[in-house]
Design goal:
The protein is α/β, with parallel strands linked by helices. It folds into two domains: about 260 residues, Aspartate Aminotransferase, domain 2, CATH 3.40.640.10; about 130 residues, Aspartate Aminotransferase, domain 1. Helix content is about 40%, strand content about 15%. It contains 15 helices and 14 strands. The strands form three sheets. A seven-stranded mixed sheet has the order 3-9-8-7-6-4-5, sandwiched between helices. Strands 10-11-14-13-12 form a five-stranded mixed sheet. It has a two-stranded antiparallel ribbon with strand order 1-2. Helix 6 links the parallel strand 4 and strand 5. Helix 2 runs antiparallel to helix 4 and helix 5 runs parallel beside helix 6.
Protein backbone atom coordinates (compact mmCIF):
# COMPACT_ATOMS: atom_id res chain seq x y z
CA UNK A 1 0.00 0.00 0.00
CA UNK A 2 1.09 3.55 -0.70
CA UNK A 3 1.73 5.39 2.56
CA UNK A 4 1.13 9.09 2.91
CA UNK A 5 2.60 11.56 5.38
CA UNK A 6 -0.43 10.91 7.59
CA UNK A 7 1.49 8.05 9.22
CA UNK A 8 4.91 9.73 9.36
CA UNK A 9 5.21 10.91 12.97
CA UNK A 10 8.16 13.15 12.17
CA UNK A 11 5.70 15.15 10.09
CA UNK A 12 2.42 14.72 12.00
CA UNK A 13 4.09 15.80 15.25
CA UNK A 14 4.56 19.25 13.71
CA UNK A 15 0.85 19.60 12.95
CA UNK A 16 -1.58 21.37 15.21
CA UNK A 17 -4.45 19.40 16.82
CA UNK A 18 -7.14 20.37 14.28
CA UNK A 19 -4.90 19.25 11.41
CA UNK A 20 -4.13 15.94 13.07
CA UNK A 21 -7.87 15.30 13.45
CA UNK A 22 -8.26 15.51 9.66
CA UNK A 23 -5.01 14.04 8.36
CA UNK A 24 -3.13 11.93 10.92
CA UNK A 25 -2.98 8.18 10.34
CA UNK A 26 -4.27 8.33 6.76
CA UNK A 27 -3.20 5.37 4.63
CA UNK A 28 -3.97 5.30 0.91
CA UNK A 29 -4.05 2.33 -1.43
CA UNK A 30 -2.70 2.33 -4.96
CA UNK A 31 -5.97 3.97 -6.03
CA UNK A 32 -5.12 7.20 -4.18
CA UNK A 33 -8.56 7.60 -2.58
CA UNK A 34 -9.18 10.89 -0.73
CA UNK A 35 -11.47 9.34 1.90
CA UNK A 36 -10.09 6.59 4.10
CA UNK A 37 -10.88 3.16 2.72
CA UNK A 38 -13.07 0.74 4.62
CA UNK A 39 -11.56 -2.75 4.79
CA UNK A 40 -14.48 -5.05 5.62
CA UNK A 41 -12.56 -8.28 6.03
CA UNK A 42 -12.11 -10.72 8.87
CA UNK A 43 -8.92 -12.31 7.53
CA UNK A 44 -6.04 -11.94 5.09
CA UNK A 45 -4.25 -14.13 2.55
CA UNK A 46 -0.52 -14.71 2.24
CA UNK A 47 1.90 -15.46 -0.57
CA UNK A 48 3.42 -18.41 1.27
CA UNK A 49 3.14 -20.51 4.42
CA UNK A 50 6.52 -19.15 5.52
CA UNK A 51 5.20 -15.59 5.31
CA UNK A 52 2.22 -16.23 7.59
CA UNK A 53 4.45 -18.12 10.03
CA UNK A 54 6.82 -15.15 10.14
CA UNK A 55 3.96 -12.72 10.85
CA UNK A 56 2.58 -14.82 13.69
CA UNK A 57 6.09 -15.18 15.12
CA UNK A 58 6.53 -11.42 15.04
CA UNK A 59 9.39 -11.70 12.55
CA UNK A 60 7.54 -9.92 9.71
CA UNK A 61 5.07 -7.06 9.61
CA UNK A 62 1.60 -7.29 8.11
CA UNK A 63 -2.00 -8.11 8.93
CA UNK A 64 -2.92 -11.50 10.42
CA UNK A 65 -6.57 -11.39 11.50
CA UNK A 66 -8.99 -8.53 12.14
CA UNK A 67 -9.19 -9.37 15.83
CA UNK A 68 -5.50 -8.40 15.87
CA UNK A 69 -5.23 -5.68 13.21
CA UNK A 70 -7.27 -4.11 10.42
CA UNK A 71 -6.15 -1.31 8.08
CA UNK A 72 -9.18 0.92 8.78
CA UNK A 73 -8.95 0.34 12.51
CA UNK A 74 -5.20 1.02 12.42
CA UNK A 75 -5.83 4.40 10.77
CA UNK A 76 -8.22 5.37 13.56
CA UNK A 77 -5.74 4.28 16.24
CA UNK A 78 -2.94 6.31 14.69
CA UNK A 79 -5.15 9.37 14.36
CA UNK A 80 -6.45 9.29 17.94
CA UNK A 81 -2.90 8.78 19.26
CA UNK A 82 -1.66 11.77 17.25
CA UNK A 83 -4.52 13.96 18.48
CA UNK A 84 -3.91 12.90 22.08
CA UNK A 85 -0.15 13.28 21.92
CA UNK A 86 0.19 9.61 22.85
CA UNK A 87 2.74 7.10 21.64
CA UNK A 88 0.05 4.51 20.91
CA UNK A 89 -3.67 3.80 20.94
CA UNK A 90 -5.93 0.77 20.79
CA UNK A 91 -9.62 1.10 19.98
CA UNK A 92 -12.39 -1.07 21.43
CA UNK A 93 -15.94 -2.09 20.68
CA UNK A 94 -17.46 0.48 23.07
CA UNK A 95 -16.58 2.99 25.74
CA UNK A 96 -17.26 0.47 28.50
CA UNK A 97 -15.06 -2.08 26.75
CA UNK A 98 -12.30 0.53 26.92
CA UNK A 99 -12.88 1.24 30.62
CA UNK A 100 -13.01 -2.45 31.53
CA UNK A 101 -9.99 -3.39 29.42
CA UNK A 102 -7.87 -0.57 30.82
CA UNK A 103 -8.34 -2.01 34.31
CA UNK A 104 -8.45 -5.78 33.75
CA UNK A 105 -5.39 -5.81 31.49
CA UNK A 106 -3.13 -4.65 34.33
CA UNK A 107 -4.76 -5.72 37.60
CA UNK A 108 -4.49 -9.02 39.48
CA UNK A 109 -6.02 -10.52 42.60
CA UNK A 110 -4.82 -8.60 45.64
CA UNK A 111 -4.45 -5.28 43.82
CA UNK A 112 -6.20 -2.09 44.90
CA UNK A 113 -7.71 0.81 42.92
CA UNK A 114 -8.51 4.34 44.08
CA UNK A 115 -11.42 5.75 42.07
CA UNK A 116 -13.17 9.08 41.83
CA UNK A 117 -16.61 9.23 43.44
CA UNK A 118 -18.36 10.91 40.52
CA UNK A 119 -18.40 8.57 37.55
CA UNK A 120 -20.61 6.96 34.95
CA UNK A 121 -22.81 4.36 36.64
CA UNK A 122 -21.37 1.42 34.70
CA UNK A 123 -17.82 2.38 35.70
CA UNK A 124 -18.79 2.23 39.36
CA UNK A 125 -20.56 -1.08 38.67
CA UNK A 126 -17.37 -2.57 37.19
CA UNK A 127 -15.44 -1.66 40.32
CA UNK A 128 -18.02 -3.13 42.68
CA UNK A 129 -19.30 -6.12 40.72
CA UNK A 130 -16.49 -7.27 38.39
CA UNK A 131 -13.15 -6.37 39.95
CA UNK A 132 -14.29 -7.38 43.43
CA UNK A 133 -15.17 -10.86 42.16
CA UNK A 134 -11.52 -11.37 41.24
CA UNK A 135 -10.08 -10.13 44.51
CA UNK A 136 -9.34 -6.60 43.33
CA UNK A 137 -10.44 -4.07 45.92
CA UNK A 138 -11.14 -0.36 45.58
CA UNK A 139 -11.58 2.81 47.58
CA UNK A 140 -13.91 5.59 46.45
CA UNK A 141 -12.81 9.17 47.10
CA UNK A 142 -14.16 12.62 46.39
CA UNK A 143 -12.09 13.33 43.30
CA UNK A 144 -12.13 17.05 44.01
CA UNK A 145 -10.23 16.55 47.27
CA UNK A 146 -6.49 16.22 46.59
CA UNK A 147 -5.77 15.06 50.14
CA UNK A 148 -8.31 12.23 49.79
CA UNK A 149 -6.33 10.66 46.93
CA UNK A 150 -3.15 10.54 48.99
CA UNK A 151 -4.93 9.27 52.09
CA UNK A 152 -6.52 6.38 50.14
CA UNK A 153 -3.23 4.95 48.85
CA UNK A 154 -2.43 1.47 50.15
CA UNK A 155 0.75 -0.59 49.66
CA UNK A 156 -1.05 -2.60 46.95
CA UNK A 157 -2.61 0.37 45.07
CA UNK A 158 -1.95 -0.14 41.37
CA UNK A 159 -4.25 2.39 39.69
CA UNK A 160 -6.04 5.72 40.04
CA UNK A 161 -9.23 5.66 37.95
CA UNK A 162 -11.32 8.78 37.40
CA UNK A 163 -13.30 11.02 35.04
CA UNK A 164 -12.82 14.75 34.62
CA UNK A 165 -15.23 16.39 34.02
CA UNK A 166 -17.24 13.63 35.67
CA UNK A 167 -20.65 12.27 34.71
CA UNK A 168 -23.13 13.75 35.63
CA UNK A 169 -21.98 16.14 38.38
CA UNK A 170 -19.16 17.66 36.29
CA UNK A 171 -16.70 17.25 39.18
CA UNK A 172 -13.20 18.34 38.15
CA UNK A 173 -10.08 16.45 39.23
CA UNK A 174 -6.81 18.38 39.54
CA UNK A 175 -4.93 16.50 36.83
CA UNK A 176 -1.46 17.80 37.58
CA UNK A 177 -1.69 16.99 41.29
CA UNK A 178 -3.42 13.61 41.12
CA UNK A 179 -1.43 12.29 38.15
CA UNK A 180 1.79 13.61 39.69
CA UNK A 181 0.96 11.89 42.97
CA UNK A 182 0.30 8.62 41.14
CA UNK A 183 3.56 8.82 39.25
CA UNK A 184 5.53 9.54 42.44
CA UNK A 185 4.11 6.36 44.03
CA UNK A 186 4.44 4.09 40.98
CA UNK A 187 0.67 4.05 40.45
CA UNK A 188 -0.89 4.09 36.97
CA UNK A 189 -3.30 7.00 36.45
CA UNK A 190 -6.23 6.17 34.13
CA UNK A 191 -8.27 9.19 33.04
CA UNK A 192 -11.66 9.00 31.31
CA UNK A 193 -11.60 12.06 29.03
CA UNK A 194 -14.85 11.40 27.13
CA UNK A 195 -16.62 14.60 28.21
CA UNK A 196 -13.82 16.78 26.82
CA UNK A 197 -11.83 14.78 24.23
CA UNK A 198 -8.40 15.96 23.12
CA UNK A 199 -10.07 18.93 21.43
CA UNK A 200 -10.68 20.50 24.85
CA UNK A 201 -8.33 18.73 27.28
CA UNK A 202 -5.22 16.57 26.99
CA UNK A 203 -4.57 14.70 30.25
CA UNK A 204 -1.22 13.32 29.08
CA UNK A 205 0.13 16.88 29.19
CA UNK A 206 -0.63 16.87 32.93
CA UNK A 207 1.12 13.58 33.61
CA UNK A 208 -1.62 11.00 33.04
CA UNK A 209 -0.39 7.53 32.09
CA UNK A 210 -3.50 6.23 30.32
CA UNK A 211 -6.41 8.12 28.71
CA UNK A 212 -9.65 6.29 27.97
CA UNK A 213 -12.64 7.20 25.82
CA UNK A 214 -16.13 6.39 24.84
CA UNK A 215 -15.61 7.38 21.21
CA UNK A 216 -19.36 6.85 20.85
CA UNK A 217 -19.75 10.36 22.21
CA UNK A 218 -18.06 13.47 20.81
CA UNK A 219 -15.60 11.61 18.60
CA UNK A 220 -18.42 10.17 16.48
CA UNK A 221 -20.57 13.16 17.30
CA UNK A 222 -23.70 12.14 15.46
CA UNK A 223 -24.94 9.24 17.57
CA UNK A 224 -24.26 6.58 14.95
CA UNK A 225 -21.93 3.90 16.30
CA UNK A 226 -20.39 2.48 19.46
CA UNK A 227 -16.61 2.75 19.93
CA UNK A 228 -13.97 3.10 22.63
CA UNK A 229 -10.29 4.01 22.77
CA UNK A 230 -7.33 3.72 25.12
CA UNK A 231 -4.18 5.86 24.72
CA UNK A 232 -0.83 5.59 26.48
CA UNK A 233 2.84 4.79 26.10
CA UNK A 234 3.88 2.33 23.40
CA UNK A 235 5.30 0.04 26.09
CA UNK A 236 2.04 -0.06 28.09
CA UNK A 237 -0.23 -0.36 25.05
CA UNK A 238 1.86 -3.04 23.31
CA UNK A 239 2.93 -5.13 26.30
CA UNK A 240 0.08 -4.73 28.80
CA UNK A 241 -3.11 -3.86 26.92
CA UNK A 242 -2.61 -5.51 23.51
CA UNK A 243 -2.14 -9.11 24.72
CA UNK A 244 -5.30 -8.78 26.82
CA UNK A 245 -7.31 -7.28 23.97
CA UNK A 246 -5.95 -9.70 21.38
CA UNK A 247 -7.00 -12.72 23.40
CA UNK A 248 -10.28 -11.49 24.90
CA UNK A 249 -11.60 -9.83 21.75
CA UNK A 250 -13.28 -6.45 22.58
CA UNK A 251 -12.28 -5.16 19.15
CA UNK A 252 -13.84 -2.40 17.07
CA UNK A 253 -15.42 -3.24 13.71
CA UNK A 254 -13.89 -1.65 10.57
CA UNK A 255 -17.20 0.01 9.74
CA UNK A 256 -17.48 1.67 13.14
CA UNK A 257 -13.81 2.70 12.92
CA UNK A 258 -14.48 4.36 9.57
CA UNK A 259 -17.48 6.26 10.94
CA UNK A 260 -15.45 7.58 13.88
CA UNK A 261 -12.61 8.53 11.52
CA UNK A 262 -15.01 10.75 9.59
CA UNK A 263 -16.40 12.16 12.85
CA UNK A 264 -12.91 13.19 13.99
CA UNK A 265 -12.54 15.48 10.98
CA UNK A 266 -15.07 17.88 12.51
CA UNK A 267 -14.38 17.20 16.20
CA UNK A 268 -12.50 20.43 16.87
CA UNK A 269 -15.21 22.53 15.22
CA UNK A 270 -18.06 20.71 16.95
CA UNK A 271 -16.50 20.58 20.41
CA UNK A 272 -15.78 24.30 20.47
CA UNK A 273 -19.05 25.41 18.90
CA UNK A 274 -21.13 23.14 21.13
CA UNK A 275 -19.17 24.35 24.17
CA UNK A 276 -19.96 27.93 23.16
CA UNK A 277 -23.63 27.02 22.79
CA UNK A 278 -23.65 25.15 26.12
CA UNK A 279 -22.24 28.16 27.95
CA UNK A 280 -24.94 30.41 26.51
CA UNK A 281 -27.65 27.91 27.45
CA UNK A 282 -26.11 27.41 30.88
CA UNK A 283 -26.28 31.13 31.63
CA UNK A 284 -30.00 31.06 30.85
CA UNK A 285 -30.68 27.95 32.94
CA UNK A 286 -28.83 29.54 35.86
CA UNK A 287 -31.45 32.29 35.86
CA UNK A 288 -34.32 29.78 36.15
CA UNK A 289 -33.28 26.98 38.51
CA UNK A 290 -31.72 26.71 41.95
CA UNK A 291 -28.54 24.85 41.02
CA UNK A 292 -26.47 24.58 37.82
CA UNK A 293 -23.34 22.41 37.46
CA UNK A 294 -21.46 23.95 34.54
CA UNK A 295 -17.64 24.29 34.67
CA UNK A 296 -17.80 27.35 32.43
CA UNK A 297 -19.92 29.39 34.85
CA UNK A 298 -18.24 31.57 37.47
CA UNK A 299 -20.69 30.13 40.02
CA UNK A 300 -19.26 26.63 39.58
CA UNK A 301 -17.09 25.81 42.59
CA UNK A 302 -14.21 24.49 40.44
CA UNK A 303 -14.50 27.01 37.63
CA UNK A 304 -10.91 28.27 37.90
CA UNK A 305 -9.40 24.76 37.89
CA UNK A 306 -11.57 23.70 34.96
CA UNK A 307 -10.49 26.71 32.92
CA UNK A 308 -6.82 26.01 33.67
CA UNK A 309 -7.09 22.44 32.42
CA UNK A 310 -9.59 22.83 29.58
CA UNK A 311 -9.62 24.90 26.40
CA UNK A 312 -13.41 25.24 26.78
CA UNK A 313 -15.93 24.03 29.34
CA UNK A 314 -17.51 21.31 27.22
CA UNK A 315 -20.86 20.51 25.68
CA UNK A 316 -22.53 18.91 28.74
CA UNK A 317 -23.79 20.27 32.02
CA UNK A 318 -26.34 19.37 34.68
CA UNK A 319 -28.90 21.31 36.66
CA UNK A 320 -31.22 20.54 39.56
CA UNK A 321 -34.87 21.55 39.68
CA UNK A 322 -36.89 21.86 42.86
CA UNK A 323 -39.49 19.13 43.30
CA UNK A 324 -37.33 16.05 42.73
CA UNK A 325 -38.02 13.36 40.14
CA UNK A 326 -41.60 14.45 39.52
CA UNK A 327 -40.54 17.99 38.59
CA UNK A 328 -37.62 16.73 36.48
CA UNK A 329 -39.92 14.43 34.53
CA UNK A 330 -42.34 17.30 33.93
CA UNK A 331 -39.55 19.38 32.42
CA UNK A 332 -38.33 16.52 30.22
CA UNK A 333 -41.84 15.65 29.04
CA UNK A 334 -42.51 19.28 28.12
CA UNK A 335 -39.49 19.58 25.81
CA UNK A 336 -40.33 20.02 22.14
CA UNK A 337 -36.93 20.51 20.48
CA UNK A 338 -34.52 18.82 22.87
CA UNK A 339 -34.81 15.02 22.78
CA UNK A 340 -34.96 12.78 25.84
CA UNK A 341 -31.95 10.47 25.47
CA UNK A 342 -29.25 9.01 27.69
CA UNK A 343 -26.59 9.59 25.01
CA UNK A 344 -24.19 12.54 25.00
CA UNK A 345 -21.77 14.17 22.58
CA UNK A 346 -24.36 14.25 19.80
CA UNK A 347 -24.77 17.22 17.47
CA UNK A 348 -28.42 17.23 18.58
CA UNK A 349 -29.35 18.57 22.01
CA UNK A 350 -30.30 15.74 24.38
CA UNK A 351 -31.49 15.63 27.98
CA UNK A 352 -31.91 12.84 30.51
CA UNK A 353 -32.66 12.14 34.16
CA UNK A 354 -29.48 10.43 35.47
CA UNK A 355 -31.09 9.04 38.64
CA UNK A 356 -33.48 6.90 36.60
CA UNK A 357 -31.20 6.12 33.65
CA UNK A 358 -27.40 6.26 33.59
CA UNK A 359 -27.08 5.92 37.38
CA UNK A 360 -30.19 3.93 38.30
CA UNK A 361 -28.17 0.74 38.94
CA UNK A 362 -26.27 2.42 41.78
CA UNK A 363 -29.28 2.51 44.07
CA UNK A 364 -30.46 5.42 46.17
CA UNK A 365 -27.52 5.21 48.58
CA UNK A 366 -24.95 5.19 45.78
CA UNK A 367 -26.59 8.11 44.03
CA UNK A 368 -26.69 10.08 47.26
CA UNK A 369 -22.96 9.46 47.73
CA UNK A 370 -22.34 10.84 44.24
CA UNK A 371 -24.74 13.78 44.75
CA UNK A 372 -26.93 12.60 41.88
CA UNK A 373 -30.11 14.38 42.96
CA UNK A 374 -33.59 13.18 42.02
CA UNK A 375 -34.21 16.62 40.54
CA UNK A 376 -31.08 16.52 38.39
CA UNK A 377 -31.26 16.78 34.59
CA UNK A 378 -28.18 16.32 32.42
CA UNK A 379 -28.15 18.34 29.20
CA UNK A 380 -26.01 17.77 26.11
CA UNK A 381 -26.14 20.96 24.05
CA UNK A 382 -25.84 20.40 20.31
CA UNK A 383 -25.31 22.45 17.19
CA UNK A 384 -28.77 23.98 17.00
CA UNK A 385 -29.08 27.73 17.39
CA UNK A 386 -28.73 28.14 21.17
CA UNK A 387 -31.61 30.63 21.13
CA UNK A 388 -33.93 27.81 20.03
CA UNK A 389 -32.66 25.53 22.80
CA UNK A 390 -33.18 28.33 25.33
CA UNK A 391 -36.72 28.96 24.08
CA UNK A 392 -37.51 25.26 24.37
CA UNK A 393 -36.17 25.06 27.92
CA UNK A 394 -38.00 28.26 28.83
CA UNK A 395 -41.37 26.90 27.75
CA UNK A 396 -40.63 23.53 29.38
CA UNK A 397 -39.80 25.21 32.71
CA UNK A 398 -42.97 27.26 32.46
CA UNK A 399 -45.17 24.27 31.67
CA UNK A 400 -43.57 22.36 34.54
CA UNK A 401 -44.49 25.19 36.90
CA UNK A 402 -40.91 26.35 37.51
Amino acid sequence: MKRTTGTDRSITSKWRPATRAVRAGTTRSEHGETSEAMFLTSGYTYDSAAEVAARFAGEATGMQYSRFQNPTVAMLEERIAAMEGAEACKVQASGMAAMTSSLLCMLSAGDHVVAGRAAFGSCRWILANVLNRFGITHTIVDGRDNAAWEAAIQPNTRAFFFETPANPTLDIVDLAFVCGLAKSRGIVSIVDNAFATSALQRPLEYGADVVTYSATKLMDGQGRVLAGAICGSAEWINNTLSPFQRNTGPVLSPFNAWVVLKGLETLDLRAHKQSENALEVGKFVESRVSRVLHPGLASFSQHDLAMRQMDAAGTIFSFVVDGGREAAFKVLDALELVDISNNIGDSKSLACHPASTTHHNMGAEGRAEMCVDEGMIRLNVGLEDPADVIEDLDQAFTRAGL
